[in-house]
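Form 7-S
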Amino acid sequence: MNARWMIPAMALAVSTATMATAQTATPPVASARTSGVATFDQAPPTPPTPPAPPAPAAAAAPQAPPAPRSPQAPRVPRATTGEAPSPDERPRMRGQLINLRLEFIVSDQIGTAAPVRKTVMMNVADGESGRIRTNAEVARNKAWTTVPLSVDAYPTIEGAKIRLRASLEYQLLSEAPGPDLPAGRTSMTQSVTALLNDGVSTVLCQSADPLTDRKVTLEVKATIIR
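Output:
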């Protein structure tokens, strides 16, 4: 082949190869000339979403103060058996190691007649109690009638005085004093607390019969025996 023909042919081949390389390197462009908007094959990457800030911690609700405890009832002392002691078993204050002689005089008087006296005597320790019971059976209206005479005493020495609590139970059998008043029986109960002097007689009380002018007097003399 002639050299003059080889040079133009080589130039044509180089030109063709250059155009093909330019078409390959150019990015594809959508044919959007008719609309006037350029469209690319790949959309730009979406920027990452920033993380949401942490929510503030909720304020802790204030707790109510604890309710005060109710006071507990005092414990009851128990005996060795596990049960509460009875009132008779509870310790109590004892009196002095001294006896008192109590002389009770019951005077039963009707009108202006001489009184009938009955004497009851007992020795009782300081702070203790004494009791005397006497019953008499009397035939009345074809039946037996009980006539009681009872005396109870509770003496206590307090300094130079004697505190005495005494009671009397007595019954009066009365005949008919007149046509308008029938015969009957009167029950009498006396109870009194008094301060006494050592060795001095004191009238504690006096009762009257509601049907007649009969009266009953209770007198006592307390003597400290040392």
